[in-house]
Amino acid sequence: MNQLVDGEWRTDAYETTNDDGAFERQESTFRDWIGEAPPADEGESGRGPREDDESDDEFPAEAGRYHLYVSYACPWAHRTLIARSLKGLEDAISVSVVDPYRDEDGWQFTPEKEGCTVDHVHGADYLRELYVRADPDATCRVTVPVLWDKREGTIVNNESSEILRMLDTAFEAYATRDVDLYPEGYREEVDEIIDAIYEPINNGVYRAGFAGSQEAYDEAIDDLFSALDHWDSVLEDQRYLAGDRLTEADVCMFTTLIRFDQVYHTHFMCNVRAIHEYENLWPYLRDLYQTPGVAETVDMEHIKEHYYTTHPDVNPSRIVARGPDLDLDAPHDRDRLDGEPPEALAPLQ
Q1: Contact 26/14 with Cβ under 8 angstroms?
Q2: Catalytic residue among 74, 116, 140, 270
Q3: Is pLDDT above 90 for 54?
Q4: How much is the pTM?
Q5: Is 270 a residue of the active site?
Q6: Cβ neighbours of residue 163 under 8 Å, at least 6 residues apart?
Q7: C-alpha closest to that of 97 among 320, 297, 304, 251
Q8: Mind listing the domains of the chain with CATH numbers?
Q9: By 3-state DSSP, what share of the chain in percent is helix, strand and coil, each rounded to 5?
Q10: What pLDDT score was predicted for residue 51?
Q11: What confidence tens digit (pLDDT) does each residue in 232-254 have?
Q12: Which candidate in 206, 240, 284, 289 is catalytic?
């Protein structure tokens, strides 16, 4: 696989599986923080430890100062786009979108392609150029999302769960919608749920798809569908994962579920069941999709192109699967349960 090594781009730099054939995800590299940082030992979904982070004073929340680099295809980057949209931070935080197809040169800017943009900050051709700007000796994978500080000329953070939390909590002064995805009274439960769904579900689909042995695949599939069955049961009696409030936990679940039937079910061999076959997860997914501010962050063409064409070891033909044809706008009947989408979804006065 491809990554930077001492600031140089390498196409043979690291393996994605361990000796047992199990997929291993590398930790994110840039972990500075805007606003109040969480405890250093918090969670196993990528939020800690952060012992060497800079203080909050170096990166204060300011409108127009920060820029978000994303791919519509990537579920991790998608989290940050949803938070930006739900909070109404479009004017405060600008965005550049990379090409969904990632070849051996990594994420690329191809503004001539529908849904993609130029690098609005530097005019770079490849995302890796920004990593080298931030650290000329960088040794790391080049991933999205990236939160860039235009004033200091560096990457603040490239860990999706932390960027999600920062967009949700640090930019309240610039939000144009009254949405709180990490509300008081729910925070401990939200953190626990995010941790609980990360390994078996969010990362579980990758553990299945990139497994290098039958044992590793079987273990990933067992964990994945056991977790999906559990949360399907939970959602029978409550509208959202944490009860009656839409939270960051739902955002983290959504970006995996929206890709599941179109990509993971086929491409990553997660075919024990489809999400549209679940009694509660399927209407729950439609409920989230129909929440104002969410559907416009979903680009299924980018999603399918990326997965089916970018992993030649999994799909050497690079043929993009056609189905299934799902109606995400169909009625969901989830409003019979306690809880409502954020009132917000109207602008603040």
Answers
A1: yes
A2: 74
A3: no
A4: 0.92
A5: no
A6: 68, 79, 80, 145, 147, 157
A7: 297
A8: 187-297+324-345 (1.20.1050.10)
A9: 40, 10, 50
A10: 45
A11: 999 999 999 999 999 999 999 99
A12: 206
